[in-house]
Design brief:
Elements: H1 7-12, H2 23-28, E1 34-39, H3 43-47, E2 49-51, E3 56-60, E4 67-71, E5 76-78, H4 90-108, E6 118-121, H5 125-139, E7 146-148, H6 156-165, E8 171-174, E9 189-192, H7 199-206, H8 215-221, E10 230-235, H9 257-265, H10 271-287, H11 290-300, H12 304-314, H13 322-333, H14 336-348, E11 368-371, E12 383-388, E13 394-398, H15 403-406
Parallel strand pairs: 1-10, 6-8, 6-9, 7-8, 9-10
Antiparallel strand pairs: 2-5, 3-4, 11-12, 12-13
Protein name: Helicase conserved C-terminal domain protein
InterPro entries: Helicase_Restrict-Modif_Enz, P-loop_NTPase
Biased composition (Low complexity): 419-440
Length: 454
């Protein structure tokens, strides 16, 4: 048994393929997660460039990495194929990484704030070294954030373990060492800065990001994410444009889940839409709690994972057909309660990112808190306070337990105005004119919720 059989394997067994388990089937079964493709193109990576004669250029010894300066005695034209092999264009690497950084939390992983665990594939060890250097510069981070993991690194095994378990190491750059036979389950981003012309090798490299992981283990290394429900292939070289690369299940990303379910109810799903619905349901399955999953299975009258598997089989080029798609969506079409519950659970696990609305400043500046006349701090009931700002005076009712999270109280002492009782009549601006003010309490205990002033 092999995960990625090559021509030699097929030849040895005389093309006798006993059984096949496809990547979409593994997604349907919850073994792997589906993926998206994010393409980055730059002019140099597409067309190469020219360095004019007379230019002073650094040259690097491939073996020792020592640099020397030379003056070109003739124009140097290089194609994209020679990039990072005969010529290293530092600005091309920097441009790709800056684009990745700038789009990471808006387009690639919207709503996130922690860089996802990322594996970058480089062309050779020198290329990997240059990428690591640029990653640290672009992200403004140190050695614990990005590391090279190749056979030439002495502590490669320790770095690989850190990539699996450490919250600090976010980006690793490799050539071949992690390309095959190595599980790094928290990986969410597989970044190609080298081309791959073998379907077998590409599937092995892609598989580094495909593994599912429990939510507890995932949050231990990526605290701002709840579940791993997909991974992203970032393609900066054109590797996903080869004909041997199969598309993800999620083929119609712009179509909403509600529209897909409505079309399923009407039995009008196309092949691409059926594949997309399978991807969305598989993704939802991974995000559900055990109780929610059991409830949804009961509403469906069967495991939802079986419905997903039927959809995947229906769009398989070898076995699928229009009739198979119709049979696969029948359990969804005949069950409006299931469709509604799917949408409810999806909404419960979603968070909307508002990138459309524009905000404007209402007020900014110093503010003070005064205890309202006749009131005092206490450990018991609610505390009636007034906040003086440039806007009209208002009263804020605070209950015990909310002090620490709401008031700007430092450990050790109260703000000067907070420890005084203010009396007197309000002026036209709403702020009282004090007749007498005197401190009513001294220092604050280390736990602000135990403040008591009388």
């Amino acid at each position: 048994m092999t995960a990625t059989p090559g021509k030699q394997t097929f030849g040895f067994f005389r093309q006798n393929l006993v059984s096949e388990y496809t990547y979409p089937e593994s997604v349907a079964d919850g073994v792997n997660v589906d993926f998206d493709i994010y393409r980055i193109r730059t002019q140099i990576s597409e067309e190469g460039s020219r360095i004019e004669a007379g230019t002073i250029v650094p040259k690097v010894d491939r073996r020792t990495r020592q640099q020397r300066l030379e003056i070109l005695d003739e124009d140097l034209d290089y194609s994209a194929a020679l990039l990072d092999r005969a010529v290293t264009a530092t600005d091309q690497i920097r441009t790709v990484l800056e684009t990745f950084r700038d789009r990471l939390f808006t387009e690639i992983f919207p709503g996130r704030s922690t860089v996802p665990k990322t594996l970058i594939f480089a062309k050779d060890d020198n290329h990997a070294e240059e990428i690591v250097t640029q990653v640290r510069k672009v992200f403004g981070k140190g050695n614990d954030f990005a590391a090279k993991i190749t056979y030439n690194v002495r502590n490669a095994k320790e770095q690989l373990q850190a990539l699996r378990t450490s919250p600090s190491l976010r980006i690793a750059v490799t050539v071949d060492m992690i390309a095959t036979g190595t599980d790094v389950k928290p990986l969410e981003c597989v970044f190609f800065m080298r081309d791959v012309r073998s379907a077998q090798y590409f599937e092995q490299m892609k598989g580094r990001g495909a593994r599912t992981i429990t939510s507890a283990d995932f949050q231990a290394v990526t605290p701002d994410a709840e579940n791993k429900t997909r991974f992203v292939i970032v393609d900066a070289i054109g590797v996903t444009e080869h004909p041997f690369v199969e598309p993800p299940l999620n083929r119609q990303k712009s179509v909403s889940l509600k529209k897909l379910l409505d079309k399923a109810a009407a039995l009008t799903l196309t092949e691409d839409e059926a594949a997309t619905l399978a991807s969305r349901l598989a993704k939802l399955e991974l995000a559900l709690t055990d109780e929610e999953r059991q409830e949804l299975d009961e509403v469906a009258g069967q495991p939802v994972r079986d419905i997903v598997r039927a959809l995947v089989d229906a769009v398989d080029p070898a076995t699928g057909s229009a009739d198979a798609i119709e049979r696969a969506i029948e359990p969804i079409a005949a069950n409006p309660e299931l469709r509604n519950r799917i949408l409810e659970l999806r909404a419960a696990h979603d968070r909307v990112i508002d990138e459309v609305s524009s905000d404007e400043l209402v007020e900014a500046g110093e503010w003070s808190i005064r205890i309202a006349p006749g009131r005092s701090w206490s450990r018991g009931g609610p505390i009636l306070m007034s906040i003086a700002t440039k806007s009209p005076r208002f009263r804020l009712l605070m209950r015990p337990g909310s002090i620490e999270s709401t008031l700007p109280i430092s450990r050790g002492s109260l703000p000067a105005s907070l420890g005084r009782r203010t009396t007197g009549r309000p002026t036209s601006s709403g702020t009282p004119t004090p007749r007498s003010t005197r401190p009513r309490c001294g220092t604050v205990p280390r736990t602000p919720s135990l403040i008591s002033c009388h």
